[in-house]
């Protein structure tokens, strides 16, 4: 049984339906320790035969047997393994990978062995020393002479310790001195017990071997042994091979990106700009939400739920926006209720107090369209209410909260109208408050009382706040024999988190099977505001995201260009034994690396620009308007990776589908 046997190999190329036969029944046997020269005219089919032996060509008839077992050229994985474990290639045009250093060119083959990292590096260095290139290992192929390149190729062919070395015109591009060196190396390789098959059309080269096979018209015309084959040490252990680990294509991709960094930098910057815009808009959305929430919380206590008696009005039935406005106003403690509204009994106040998580229950009485007369001038307070826990003290911009026979008045609609410059001076002035209401028997009654201005309020969320203490309101109404029962109630909850639960609970309370209360909380208003801010932010981010489409297209174009420019590399890697999956991983990794670097750059820019904008905006709003959260960063990375992955699919697929022989023939 021969080590390698070719049985009746036929091969024809087709142009359309027309066949051009190249090999017409080749029968040959080879043994290890031989240095076989296949000699023939140019175009005689030598390279075609080598591609069949090397497991690159699958379109032929006949059999290739390795140690008596026929190879199945249609089993892609089996052929990948065969090339990886058994074959080492040396080409006339060297076929080194330009973006890898001399050492890396050799290591790329060693990555498919089970040697550990340091052993792989040691072997690569030893092989490079053997071919006389110890000083050149850090250079790149374009920094070497032709002879040096071919020696790197020889070291690479030997790296994975293959039993068969196929050399296709290895000296075709070399001068006589380098030719002699290369032939000597090939002879040494055969002497080590390997099978060297060298294609040539030079008699001199052929004579350097142990056997000459002549090929003409697609057939063997002679087969002469000129020297005895070298003995083979059967006990010699071959270095075990393995599939390429997943991280190697990634590191090769990184090396390629580094080698072609200028072009890639442009793509990365382009992609990063789109990602940055998305991140910044999201950050702005967070900032705006935070700002609005803070502003509202500064003015209204979010732990307060405002409760009025439930009335089934025509507005309720329509569920119109006016009701929502009333509810919001009520939530701010600025109830627009009128005296004709139902009031709360003490039992009902007690019932509310008993609701779980309720801390205090504060009654409110409001009056509509009160007139505030200061000196000879009249001002209108659309609502005069009683001060409760729902009002933040921080809305008082001058003076203090209203005590007995005191009032706090709105800055814009009262104090500033009184004096636009010296509005603070209104504190301490006397004001006559009057409003009309109806008594128990339905008669119109005017309530009028002189009060002192205790403070001036400013609220930007719920309109004007004109308020007296509950005791003052009660006294004013008692003087006219009017009811002093509350028209609404401010319910303070033990924690903000229980706000919703309490609101729901109160709304569920029933008397005789009918709903009793309508509870509204500032939290629901904040929810509405947040929904709108989220919507606006998402729209802005989505518009910015359109630029990411351009980024994706840029990555696709780059990847396609990269595949076209690196066809030869793909062919070389396939010849070394890399699978289609490895090639796909190589280009996908490259795209993913572009995505990750773009996302990193975008994050850096976003934080930088965000900080700069915050500096400016802080002067205006005293708030850091750009708040980029970790979640925004994570989602940016996810977006970048998804884009990169999608952009890589087609180019990587195309690269993996390339026929290795066509790829190797690329310029
Ligand atoms: N992909 C192909 N499609 C069509 N014909 C091809 C193809 N590849 C090679 N041929 C033809 O097959 C024949 C054998 O080519 P091959 O490259 O095997 O010859 P060779 O002996 O190696 O030549 P050289 O010494 O010039 O490299 C040539 O006539 C060539 O034109």
UniProtKB/TrEMBL annotation:
* Subcellular localization, as worded in the UniProt entry: Cell inner membrane
Q: Which GO terms describe its biological process?
A: amino acid transport
Q: Which residues form the ABC transporter domain?
A: 4-242
Q: Which UniProt keywords apply?
A: Amino-acid transport, ATP-binding, Cell inner membrane, Cell membrane, Membrane, Nucleotide-binding, Transmembrane, Transmembrane helix, Transport
Q: Which GO terms describe its cellular component?
A: membrane protein complex; plasma membrane
Could you tell me which residues belong to the region Disordered? 313-338
Identify its membrane topology class: Multi-pass membrane protein
One term of GO molecular function: ATP binding
Membrane-spanning residues? 261-281, 539-565, 586-613, 633-653
Bias (Low complexity): 323-338
The record's annotation in Pfam families points to: ABC_tran (PF00005), FtsX (PF02687), MacB_PCD (PF12704)
Q: Which PROSITE patterns match?
A: ABC_TRANSPORTER_1, ABC_TRANSPORTER_2
Q: Which PANTHER family match?
A: ABC TRANSPORTER ATP-BINDING PROTEIN MG467-RELATED, LIPOPROTEIN-RELEASING SYSTEM ATP-BINDING PROTEIN LOLD
* Family assignment from sequence similarity: Belongs to the ABC transporter superfamily. Macrolide exporter (TC 3.A.1.122) family.
Q: What is the name of this protein?
A: ABC transporter ATP-binding protein
The species is: Lactiplantibacillus pentosus (Lactobacillus pentosus)
């Amino acid at each position: 049984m021969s080590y390698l046997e070719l049985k009746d190999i036929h091969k024809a190329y087709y142009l359309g339906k027309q066949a051009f036969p190249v090999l017409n029944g080749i029968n040959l046997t080879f043994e290890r320790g031989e240095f076989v020269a296949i000699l023939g005219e140019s175009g005689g089919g030598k390279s075609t035969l080598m591609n069949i032996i090397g497991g690159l060509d699958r379109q032929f008839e006949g059999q290739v047997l390795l140690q008596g077992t026929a190879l199945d050229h249609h089993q892609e994985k089996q052929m990948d393994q065969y090339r990886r474990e058994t074959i080492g290639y040396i080409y006339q045009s060297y076929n080194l990978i330009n973006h890898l250093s001399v050492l890396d060119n050799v290591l790329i083959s060693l990555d498919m062995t089970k040697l550990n990292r340091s052993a792989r590096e040691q072997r690569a260095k030893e092989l490079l020393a053997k071919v006389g290139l110890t000083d050149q290992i850090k250079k790149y192929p374009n920094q070497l002479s032709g002879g040096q390149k071919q020696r790197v190729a020889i070291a690479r062919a030997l790296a994975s310790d293959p039993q068969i070395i196929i050399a296709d015109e290895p000296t075709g591009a070399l001068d006589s001195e380098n030719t002699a060196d290369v032939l000597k190396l090939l002879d040494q390789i055969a002497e080590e017990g390997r099978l060297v098959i060298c294609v040539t059309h030079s008699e001199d080269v052929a004579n350097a071997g142990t056997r000459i096979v002549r090929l003409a018209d697609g057939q063997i015309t002679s087969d002469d042994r000129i020297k005895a084959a070298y003995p083979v040490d059967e006990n010699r252990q071959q270095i075990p091979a393995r599939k390429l680990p997943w991280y190697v294509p990634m590191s090769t991709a990184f090396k390629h990106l580094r080698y072609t960094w200028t072009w890639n930098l442009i793509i990365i910057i382009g992609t990063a700009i789109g990602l940055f815009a998305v991140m910044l808009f999201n950050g702005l959305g967070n900032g705006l939400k935070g700002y609005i929430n803070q502003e509202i919380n500064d003015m209204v206590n979010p732990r307060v739920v405002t409760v009025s008696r439930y009335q089934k009005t025509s507005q309720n039935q329509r569920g119109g926006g006016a009701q929502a406005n009333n509810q919001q106003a009520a939530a701010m403690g600025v109830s627009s209720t009128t005296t004709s509204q139902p009031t709360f009994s003490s039992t009902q106040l007690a019932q509310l107090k008993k609701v779980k998580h309720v801390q205090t229950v504060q009654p409110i009485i409001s009056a509509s369209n009160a007139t505030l007369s200061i000196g000879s001038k009249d001002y209108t307070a659309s609502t005069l209410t009683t001060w409760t826990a729902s009002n933040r003290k921080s809305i008082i911009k001058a003076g203090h909260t209203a005590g007995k026979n005191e009032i706090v008045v709105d800055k814009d609609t009262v104090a500033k109208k009184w004096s636009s410059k010296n509005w603070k001076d209104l504190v301490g002035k006397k004001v006559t408050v009057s409003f009309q209401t109806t008594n128990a028997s339905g008669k119109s009654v005017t309530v009028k009382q002189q009060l002192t201005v205790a403070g001036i309020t400013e609220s930007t969320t719920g309109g004007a706040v004109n308020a007296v203490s509950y005791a003052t309101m009660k006294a004013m109404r008692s003087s006219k024999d009017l009811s002093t029962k509350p028209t609404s109630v401010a319910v303070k909850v033990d924690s903000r988190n229980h706000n919703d639960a309490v609101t729901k609970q109160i709304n569920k309370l029933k008397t005789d099977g009918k709903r009793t209360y309508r509870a509204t909380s500032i939290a629901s208003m904040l929810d509405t505001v947040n929904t709108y801010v989220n919507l606006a932010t998402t729209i802005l981010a989505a518009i910015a995201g359109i630029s990411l489409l351009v980024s994706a297209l840029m990555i696709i174009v780059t990847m396609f260009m990269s595949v076209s420019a690196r066809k030869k590399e793909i062919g070389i890697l396939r010849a070394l034994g890399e699978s289609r999956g490895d090639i796909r991983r190589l280009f996908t990794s490259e795209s993913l690396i572009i995505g990750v670097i773009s996302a990193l750059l975008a994050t850096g820019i976003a934080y930088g620009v965000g900080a700069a904008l915050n500096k400016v905006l802080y002067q205006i709003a005293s708030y850091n308007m750009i708040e980029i959260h970790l979640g925004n960063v994570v989602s940016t990375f996810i977006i970048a990776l998804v884009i990169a992955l999608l952009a890589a699919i087609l180019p990587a697929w195309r690269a993996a589908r390339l026929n290795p022989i066509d790829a190797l023939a690329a310029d």
